Amino acid sequence: MPKRPLKPCQKPGCPNLVERGRYCEEHKAEANKTFRQRTKRDKYYDKHIRDKRAEKFYNSAAWIRTREYVLNKYKYLDLYDYYINKKITRANTVHHIVELKDDWSRRLDINNLFPVSAANHNVIDGLYRKDKKEAQKLLYQLLERWQHEHGP
User: Fold this and answer.
1) Which end of the chain is more exposed for a tag (fewer CB within 10 A), N or C?
2) Which residue stretches of 9-150 are H helix?
């Protein structure tokens, strides 16, 4: 049976090739240390920072149904990319325009939910950090534009 081709080490700038795994022997320990730190940080976040009520909500049947309804309503189209970047991208995330922490009662409000890709969800989070009100206004305008062009 022929040997597998060697792959480059995943450490940026490393010229070494590896037969198995992601890192060469030189960088394997460093990668494991980083992984352990990340795991420790994630456990701390889950235990002390993560909003338990929101986490429970995102796993609820009501949210799963509503999320699927919104994605179907907008034909799985990332509206941010469609209108802002003039690109067609598949939406896989539903963003709360008014966030849960700001108004829990709007968590299942269809008019408060915006379909986006994971990449654009991060872009929108960045817009929220700069000017939340303006970002929310933009998202509502994009929803209105879709409804005007395609119906409710």
Assistant:
1) N
2) 25-44, 52-58, 61-73, 79-80, 118-150
β-strands 7-8, 17-18 pairing: antiparallel
Q: What is the pTM of this model?
A: 0.70
Q: Which amino acid is at 62?
A: A
Q: Which amino acid is at 20?
A: R
Residue with tokens 């009662």: 105
- Find out whether 35 and 25 touch, Cβ atoms under 8 Å: no
Whether the predicted pLDDT of 20 surpasses 80: yes
Angle at CA of residue 85, ends 79 and 87, nearest 5°? 70
Any bridge partners for residue 114, and if so which?
95
For tokens 């460093």, the residue is 30
The pLDDT of residue 28: 87
- The Cβ of residue 75 has, within 10 Å, a number of other Cβ atoms equal to 13
Are the C-beta atoms of residues 108 and 66 closer than 8 Å to each other?
Answer: yes
Q: Amino acid letter at 136?
A: Q
